[in-house]
TrEMBL record:
Its EC number is 2.1.1.-. GO terms for molecular function: RNA binding; RNA methyltransferase activity. GO terms for biological process: RNA methylation. This is Ribosomal RNA small subunit methyltransferase B.
């Protein structure tokens, strides 16, 4: 691999803004690439990959390079030298900025550092302790390395527009290297390519949706013609898939606290040929008037969570979240279960889901609800844990509850 020196400062400066000043990773990288239009595609890929590597392996790199987080410009050059060595590349020998630390010393420190799993897998100590306590050694030992791998882009072919095979052929004809994934609607994109300019995308033939998230609609299996409330709908990834399974018959009320996300949902629904979705912003109080109670045949609660199941795509999460945040988000999840479950009609079904791998956001949360006075009317029908240690998907949890009739 050849390294170009002019690319190094933008890499570490952007990584520093993300890791130490809280800038948003994806947006910062997009911004950097937009403001350097002269860079060729190889350089753009290199810059983006190296910033993501620095985010994913931040702790491992700094423990090996410096035994503390980087502070100065010289520290960041040594971080990059360490990163390249550990990635299996030979760093340039004639760059004075990288002379401060000898390669043999880097490998010696690496041997010591990897004895500690939190350092080897590059996560904060509190997270290692918490996950180990909750998930247990057996699963955590497999799950953590899998969460550190990189993930392919997964698409969902839109069955309202065409069967999956037809979508596959059209995308390949348009030059997108896609393969089938699983036996339903999923397609996987072999290499990271732009696709939003394609005619098939504009015509709503497919959406980006992780494989785990695509399992939710099939877990619920909503019947066409029924009334479904998706109460944490965001920009509508699950709502659109649910509408497709309902053959665009019935009614879906997609709600969220964020009007901005609902606006995006409406745009996507139009593109996807979905006409049964209505959107509504939830009041900031997170409480509903009794007019909404006992109405939904199906209630989907894809609640806000830590995002610890999606570290492959958002490695920044491990440096952003803190134990206090987990407590807050779990209180929100409990509130949503308690208040929103009132919308489910007797005999109706409630689906609770998160993209977390922590039992305290998942099955323990559901158990607490079922044991509370508000949960007495519900019973658990089934639950499922998904994750990159088990299949091609992100970490995800789903529980299907039924309200007694
Ligand atoms: C996991 S995301 C939902 C993703 C979405 N279902 C999809 O498939 O793309 C959780 C959503 O819950 C919303 N949210 C946060 N607090 C909420 C609340 N109290 N009531 C309803 N939605 C809330 C967030 O704005 C976010 O869009």
């Amino acid at each position: 691999m050849r390294f170009y020196k002019n690319l190094i400062p933008p890499i570490w400066q952007t990584a520093r803004a993300i890791l130490q000043e809280g800038a948003h990773a994806h947006r910062s990288i997009q911004q950097l690439l937009r403001s350097n239009k002269k860079w060729g595609s190889r350089d753009r890929r290199f810059v983006a990959e190296q910033i993501y590597e620095l985010i994913r392996w931040y702790r491992l790199y700094y423990e090996v390079a410096l035994e503390r987080p980087p502070e100065t410009e010289a520290d960041w050059w040594l971080m990059l030298k360490t990163a390249w060595l550990l990635q299996g590349h030979q760093p340039p020998e004639d760059w004075p900025e990288m002379q401060g630390l000898d390669s043999l010393e880097i490998w010696r420190r690496h041997r010591v550092a990897v004895e500690n799993r939190a350092i080897r897998e590059s996560i904060p100590d509190w997270l290692e302790e918490r996950a180990l306590q909750e998930v247990g050694e057996e699963r955590w030992a497999k799950l953590l390395p899998a969460l550190n791998s990189s993930a392919d882009v997964v698409l969902r072919s839109n069955s309202l527009k065409a069967p999956r095979q037809k979508v596959l052929h059209r995308l390949r004809k348009e030059g997108l290297p896609v393969e089938l994934l699983g036996d339903r609607e999923a397609l996987v994109l072999g290499q990271n390519r732009k696709f939003t300019h394609l005619k098939s995308y504009e015509e709503g033939w497919f959406e980006v949706q992780d494989y785990a998230s695509q399992q939710l609609a099939h877990f619920l299996k909503p019947q066409a013609g029924r009334y479904l409330v998706d109460a944490c709908a965001g920009a509508g990834g699950k709502s659109l898939h649910l509408a497709a399974l309902m053959k665009n018959r019935g009614e879906i009320l997609s709600m969220d606290l964020s009007e901005h996300k609902l606006k995006e949902l409406r745009k996507r629904a139009k593109r996807a040929g979905v006409s049964i979705i209505k959107t509504e912003k939830i009041p900031a109080s997170g409480r509903f008037s009794p007019a909404y109670y006992n109405m939904a045949d199906y209630l989907v609660l894809d609640v806000p969570c830590s995002g610890l199941g999606v570290l492959r795509r958002n490695p920044q999460t491990k440096w952003i979240i803190k134990p206090e945040f987990l407590e807050e988000i779990q209180a929100t999840q409990a509130h949503i279960l308690r208040e929103y479950s009132l919308l489910c009609k007797p005999g109706g079904q409630l689906l609770y889901a998160t993209c977390s791998i922590l039992p305290s956001e998942n099955e323990w949360q559901v158990q607490r609800f079922l044991q509370s006075p508000d949960g007495q009317e519900f019973e658990l029908l089934k639950e499922q844990h998904l994750g990159p240690d088990r299949g091609p998907e992100d970490g995800f949890y789903m529980a299907l509850l039924q309200r007694k009739g």
